[in-house]
Amino acid sequence: MKNTANESHNEINRRILLIDDERPVHDAYHTVLAGSKVGDADFDDLEAEMFGDASEPAAAGGGEIAFELTSAHQGEEGVELCKQAVEADNPFAMAFVDMRMPPGIDGLETVRRLWEVAPELQVVICSAYTDYSWDEVRAKLGYSSRLLILKKPFENVEVHQMAAALTEKWSLARAAMQQMDHLEEAVTERTRDLEQAQKQLLQAEKMASVGQLAAGVAHEINNPIGYIASNLNTLGDYVADLTRVLEAFSSLQDALESGAADAVSKREAASAVAKEVDLPFLLEDLESIVSESTEGTDRVRKIVADLRDFSHADTPDIKEEDLNLLITKTLSVAQNEVKYKADLVTELADLPPVACFGGKLSQVILNLVVNAAQAIAEHGVITVRTGIQGADAWIEVQDNGSGMPPEVMSKIFDPFFTTKDVGKGTGLGLNLAYNIIESHGGSIDVESEVGKGTTFRIEVPIAGPPMAKEVAHDQAA
Known about the structure:
Layout: E1 2-4, E2 15-19, H1 23-34, H2 41-51, E3 68-72, H3 75-87, E4 94-98, H4 107-117, E5 122-127, H5 134-141, E6 147-151, H6 156-211, H7 217-258, H8 263-276, H9 279-310, E7 319-321, H10 323-338, E8 342-347, E9 354-356, H11 358-374, E10 380-389, E11 392-399, H12 406-409, H13 429-439, E12 443-449, E13 453-461, H14 466-476
Parallel strand pairs: 2-3, 2-4, 4-5, 5-6, 8-10
Antiparallel strand pairs: 1-3, 7-9, 10-11, 11-13, 12-13
Helix pairs in contact: 1-2, 3-4, 6-7, 6-9, 7-8, 7-9, 10-11, 11-13
């Protein structure tokens, strides 16, 4: 049996499942919640037994809350109806469940199965008997804020108020949960985009070293990152507002469960909180915030993509390279950048082939040489040396420029740290160099003295990174 009294009120899910083995009980609920009176003496007696002497319907038209009621006469039937509603994406918000329903499963087992199908369902167990102690109920169902126990007989207003509060609680919780899920997915996706953007920025630093094509990138991404950060602060405020709404309705539920006299006032207070935070506007603005943040990350991604277009792909494989030839070719690329600032001098020792990522080592050398040129005020000398120490090959890049104080030297490998003016560098070059050398299982060190110059020294294993040696050993075995 199904009865829809009016159209849904303010998009709150007012669908209620009634599970009881006595048909007159369903009629009584319909009288209280839907205002449909059944004229029958036996029904009147049962209504008096359930609801005491108050026989007037609690919901009687005139703008009152409309509930959509669906009846089941056994627990198994109720579970099946609940399952069908979930599958149809039209779930029940709450259920009134009788404790005793012979010959089928009892109320506790029914509730347990209902929650397997619809974990968010608000449930009121109704009984005139003490079939289970509260400890037994908790042992069977666990402690849950979705469960209330109502002893017969009860007042019409109790049933009506409970139905109103619990259906609204379900709807607000569902809306908040869906919005939080959406925000979590959006934040996860955008975080992934930003992580990818950082990797792409490191790659784009190549062109910043070659022709300063990445000048001012850090400044360019600062604006979108700024309003993304602002939006996240706003999201924090909205989450706090949603928490207030849920706490208010949770307090109302506690009052209803304990039979407190201030249940009506708490319902009014809960409704006032929902109105105060302007829930419809809040949910609408959340979508706007996510959209704006998406636009910001898209801007960052476009900046990175533009830089990547100027770059060329490096081979991902480790190969044996002639480091001296690698250095010579790299200095040829850097010549136009440094020729007006310094003379390039090479002191290259005889080296065996070195297993490495050649393109990446070229990038490190290029970054160090370009930085050396920028550290020279007028005209100076940049010297590049190579040699062998034990099982490592080393490369030194020395300049006679301005040098660095200790407080600057301690930060030079940090991402986005730069002493240059906006547009002169991104602060990623030395961080990129550090990560590349680290991936080779090597080291990069610096010595500097203000007014005299700076020397960077790179050491990498001649046999290649440790991972490459392990692969070669496995292949030989």
